[in-house]
Amino acid sequence: MLDHIRIGEGKEILFLHGWGCTKEIFNLSYSPSFCLTAPDLYGFGSTPAPPFGVDLDYYVRGVRQLLEHYHMEDVTIVAHSFGARIALRLAQDSRISGLVLIGAAGLRPRRKPIYYLRVLHAKLARLFALSGPKGSKDYSTLSPVMKRTFINIVHTYQDRELQLVRCPVLLIWGEEDRETPLYMLRKFEHGLPHSNTVMLEGCGHFCFLEQSSRVHQLIKEFVRNL
Fold first, then answer.
1. What is the predicted pLDDT for the residue at 121?
2. What would you report as the CA-atom Rg of the chain, rounded to the nearest whole angstrom?
C-alpha cells in the first residue's frame, strides 16, 4: 500500500501530489470537520518505485486500494499537476463526490516546431551514442525505472476523459503558471463546462503554496457545499 498520512474526522478529502513531490507538500493539519489523507505516490517519498514499465493505471490502482482500505465514501480529491491525472481517472468512481484540480496536467499540450527538432536530436544522439539533450529537469534526475514511468505517463492524454467527469470540479490556477500554462486551463474549462475557476494573481505552478491560506479556504468552502 502507498505510504500515507491520515488525520482528522469528518468529510473525506484525499490529496494527490505532483511529480517529484511528496505528501508533506500539502502541510496537512488536524481539522475537526474533515478527514485528510495524503499518500506518497509510487517512487516518491517513502513509497517504493513501481515495477519497470508501468503506466498511469498502476498509480490509479494504488490510490483506489487506499480508498478501499479505509472504506472511503463521498470523497473530494484535491490534486496538483500530475496528481490531477490520477484524479481525472478516479472521477468516474461513484465514491468521488468532487475534484479540486490545481495546475492540472493530463491534457495534450501544444507543441512548437523546436520541440520536435529536440526530440529528433535526442533520438539521433541515442542512435549514434553521442551526447545530446538530457530532457526536462523532471526527467533527467530520475532512475531508469522512473524514467520509463515518466515517459509512459506524459504520453497519456486524457482530453476525452473530461466528458466522463460527472462530479463538481473546482479549477485553481496560478496566473503565471509556466508548467501548465493558461491555455491548458482553457482546455479544462471547455471540457468541463460545469466547473468553476479561481485564478490566483501573481502565482505560478505551486500557487497552493504561494497563497496557501486562500487555497485552504477555497477547498473547505467547496467541500462544504457539495
1. 41
2. 18
| CA distances from residue 103 to 112, 171, 210 in whole angstroms, order as listed | 21, 8, 13
With a cut of 90, say whether residue 129 has pLDDT above it.
no
Residues in the chain: 226
pTM equals 0.90
pLDDT in tens, 33-91: 999 999 999 999 999 999 999 999 999 999 999 999 999 999 999 999 999 999 999 99
Cell numbers standing for residue 104: 492540472
Q: How many Cβ atoms are within 10 Å of 207's Cβ, its own excluded?
A: 25
Please give the share of the chain, as a percent, with pLDDT higher than 90.
Answer: 83
Domains observed in the chain: 4-110+157-224 (3.40.50.1820)
d(CA 147, CA 149) in angstroms, rounded, equals: 5
Contact call for residues 169 and 90 (beta carbons, < 8 A): no
Q: Which residues pair with 186 in a beta bridge?
A: none
Cell numbers found for residue 170: 473546482
